[in-house]
Automatic annotation (TrEMBL):
NCBIfam families: cas_CT1978. This is Type I-E CRISPR-associated endoribonuclease Cas2. It comes from the Bacteria. It comes from Desulfovibrio psychrotolerans.
């Protein structure tokens, strides 16, 4: 299973994702693909992302049972902690006084 979540992306990208996947909530797409198709869908996200951001999660043979990719500006970003994928969270600009 593959899940893609997008925020603030152009309507054209949302429409393209809806062709390949089921949109179960606004900006949340679910599908089941081969690796090759998953990579092709993600390339389309990379091309059409605009000023938005996206994350893709899929089942993988890892200790956690999944893997993920992110794209675009977001307060959360992936970090590798001794081979385990984790997510670091930046404080909001209002909290740090920017």
């Amino acid at each position: 299973m593959t899940v893609i979540v997008v925020e603030n992306v152009p309507p054209r990208l949302r429409g393209r994702l809806a062709v390949w996947m089921l949109e179960i909530r606004a900006g949340v797409y679910v599908g089941s693909f081969s690796v090759k198709v998953r990579e092709m869908v993600w390339k389309n996200v990379e091309v059409g992302i605009g000023e938005g951001n996206a994350v893709m999660v899929w089942r993988a043979q890892t200790e956690s049972g999944f893997d993920f990719l992110t794209l675009g500006a977001n307060r959360r970003h992936p970090v590798d902690f001794d081979g385990t994928p984790l997510v670091s969270f930046f404080p909001s600009p209002e909290i740090i006084g920017l």
